[in-house]
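Milestone 3.1: sequence recovery, worked example.
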C-alpha cells in the first residue's frame, strides 16, 4: 500500500536508482492520453515540474537531485546510481520556472 501511495502521488525520489526512476516515468506515459494513475513530477523552487520522458546516462552521479546542467536536450539530474536526462517536461500552468544548474530538485 505504501508504494502504491507514492506512485499515486507521482513524486520522483532522486535517491532511487536511475532505472527505477526511468521505469516510474515510463509507466505513467499514456501519450497522447493523460495518465489515469499519476504524473511524475519533481519540485523546484516550490513549484511542480512534470516529467514525461527521461534517458539514463552511464555517468557517475554526485548528490541525488542535483541539477548538473540544463540545455536544449534536457535537464541532467543525479540519481542514486547514475545521471539521467529529463528530456521532456513542463511546469505548472501559469508558473514561470527558470531551472538553474547547481540547484536541486526536492
Amino acid at each position: 500500500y505504501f508504494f502504491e501511495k507514492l506512485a499515486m502521488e507521482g513524486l520522483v525520489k532522486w535517491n532511487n536508482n536511475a532505472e527505477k526512476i526511468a521505469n516510474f516515468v515510463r509507466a505513467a506515459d499514456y501519450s497522447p492520453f493523460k495518465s489515469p494513475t499519476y504524473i511524475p513530477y519533481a519540485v523546484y523552487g516550490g513549484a511542480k515540474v512534470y516529467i514525461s520522458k527521461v534517458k539514463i546516462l552511464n555517468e557517475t552521479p554526485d548528490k541525488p537531485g542535483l541539477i548538473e546542467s540544463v540545455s536544449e536536450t534536457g535537464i541532467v539530474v543525479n540519481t542514486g546510481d547514475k545521471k539521467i536526462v529529463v528530456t521532456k517536461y513542463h511546469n505548472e500552468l501559469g508558473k514561470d520556472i527558470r531551472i538553474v544548474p547547481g540547484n536541486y530538485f526536492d
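The first helix runs from residue 2 to 9. The longest strand covers residues 47-57.
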